Amino acid sequence: MASLLSRLFGFHDNRRDARFDGPSVPVLPTPDTRPVQTSTASEFSVDVLQPLKNWSHPLKDTGNPLAQLTHMAKAAAGYYPIGRSGLFHGGVHFDSGTGIPPDKSVHCLADGEVVAYRVDTQAPTTRYFVNTITVGKPFSRNFVLVRHRLQPPKIEGSTDTPPCLTFYSLYMHLEDWAVYQKNSAIARPTFWPQSPTLRVKQTANDFRSGRLDRPGLNVRHMDRKQGKVIDLLPRGAKVTVSGTGLYRKLENRLGPTELIKADGSLAGYIAASILQPIAGNEYRITSSKALVNVRAEPIIPCKVIAELPTGTIVTVSGEGDFRKLERINQYVHFNWLEGEQEPLAADRIVVLDQPVPIKAGDLIGHLGKYQDSGADQPEHKLHLEVFSGDDIDMFIEASREWAKRLPDRDKTWLKLAKGTAVVAHEDNVTAAQLKAMSADSPLSAADLLLPKRVLDGLRAEEKIIVAATSVHKARNWYRLDGLLHDANNNLLTGWVCEEVGVTPWFSSWSWEGYDVIFDFSMPKHAMASFFSAVNRFSDAQREQFRPLAEKDNHGPMKSRLYDIIDRNRDGKMTAEELQAALRLPAHAQAISQLILRKESEWFHQPKKWDALDELLGHSGSTPHLNWLAEKQRIKEISWWGEVADKVGLPSWGRPYHFHPIGLAGLFSETQELITMEMLKAADPQGTSNYHQEILPYLNMYAPTYKIDTPLRIVHFLAQVGHESQFKVKSENGNYSPRRMREIFGCKGGQKNYNTGEDDCDLGRLRSKLWSHEHLYANNAIKLLSYVYADRMGNRGEETQDGYNYRGRGIIQLTGRFNYERYTRIHNTANPSDLKDFVVNPDLIIDELQYGVESAFVYCAMTNFNLAADEDDIEKTTQIINGGQNGLHERKEILNNIKLIMDI
Description:
flat; alpha+beta; 5-stranded antiparallel β-sheet; 10-stranded mixed β-sheet
């Protein structure tokens, strides 16, 4: 809706001569008729909803909050709070302008619970006139609505309850159900319930003799491990099963693959003499032989096409000496099957009777397709919104009072007030020179709140620290590039000064700079203002609609925007002006601090859209057919009326709107478990850029895996800092003959290798490193497959498990057993990001986050946390290193981090 006018321009010529009897009705999916339980208003309660702890960017952008805000200027359309049509736009768009992730995945903004969603099988279409023909254009109306609870931390030593706010995040224009049905490789949201259809896991690793390239799941002739293998299901095979034991009966397969005919029926005949009746046409094979023949025809002699184990239960038909096989009972190990999520219902709105918990960063869905009336092709896009029905004024006032009681460590935003001097950089400049030059330096034209993360990430040469003296306070000079701007909106580069104790720091809970604005203007006012600004009106029309335009221009929202970005008050406020302002960090931040009480565009009231008819030139005698089609689309995409009062939103459709990226950025800067300063102490040679890249993942997984106390954090950082300097590595394995024998050849380890003799003092452990030197030297695949074979869960040398599951990550995770455990632990902790590190072990080195997470998981699999709780560096070193290598250096790193953490 935000680009409404741009979609409708140019269609007035298609009115009278078009053969069209009325408004175009969208082609909608057939609603799912299955019953769906829904909540009622009287049942609504958020008492059980826990305050959120974590935030995540919806597309997993790990940049700093200011960079994320200015990035939104790249959107092709859909800015907060005005769209390209001049209408109010309560959210932001991610589209081709902002960039779309390759997998098009959308992730939850914060911890919360899913309360409602809609998933159409296929996106509906609206038929618009293009020249003299109508063209159907799809519009995804799929959405997910998540409820969250925002609450400041408790005050130490106080029993007072912090204020809280219930808010909602909305994800619009998501992918269709048909796309998931066609491609099973696409991850599905875990808040969808599981379907009765299961799949063989991608980690299933049974093999048929001689076919190591085709792993799968064994099918047995009875419901126990002792059952003989009669078939192999490939990974990903769809199955339905019955029963409750460890082995379940296959229901969707008549028999082994080799006996299934082209028409789907079962081939083969079996001797009636070996069939023991059970019930009906079901029999058990009984024979003195372990295996009995299945024949192609009911005669002897005849070709034997398969063998079945004695004890197999079969269903047969016919009479005579041989009976026709109709079904063979088959069983599979249930633990190697996994369910598929499916929406509770398709093609209708689902309001969940029992909301489903969801974590920040969990999968919401994928970007769907939306085609504007004037677009040649559909576009993938996400419309993201955040709003609340609570009393925002009351909450912010209480939150600000609460912030005054929080410790200083919670103040993570430095305020550089309007008028801050930005001193141009010179080589070898000193603090005294900067102070002297500041009087003649350009001044910033707007306030800017700077996140501590940005300052922590500056290189050493971009900071100058001046200690306090008897005549002046301590000062910190920071070199900032392109963050502040001057009165002409030119970005400034240079040095700014923080006077310690004077330049203020703020907590996120202070809501510094935020305004709550009540604006009651309607679309007709905004559109009249827009038409006037872009000279769409004739002189007569300008006068006719001036009262409407002025109500919008002088309304609270526009007035505040004029204050921020159009101080000359030229009477124009367009999306282009807004987009230009969003490129400036201070303006983008100021706009993101607007909390707007406005009617939601998802709350459908026909009269507010009918009020635009005259402005768009539509009447009974001169119908604007594409506008009629657009109004029908607006109706179909709206959802507020069916959902609001069932989930705690105001039924009258006028919530408080927040800038979603601004809100997430504000609170993602609260105190982190691991800071840049700690990371630098653990890895003093590492670059700031790399530390900034890895830090979000360290803070993402530290609380998940309980590395969340000062002692656990300091020991974890010390160990990783020494082991890998936080670099994600893969074990090399490419060794010279002598070196491979030294590392892997001797009983008792390297210390028992005799360099002079090129032999072992206590005997050889792996003699093939001498006898088959040519095979293993300088060949990582061969060497690691051999030395790691038949241990750590690895199979024999010929499977190459030793190489496939070699050490990877910032702490070397090694062995198939550990990769299997990592898969289970990761998927349990991250149900919306299911991965299989057995099938795809290189994920640990290809994707930084898993290279980091694997270290936390390794600690969780061991007694690392217990050793850290005892502050025992020797124990934590033994757990991580397997010995005491580098113990002195590890202690030094540990003590350096402790100094910073005041331990």
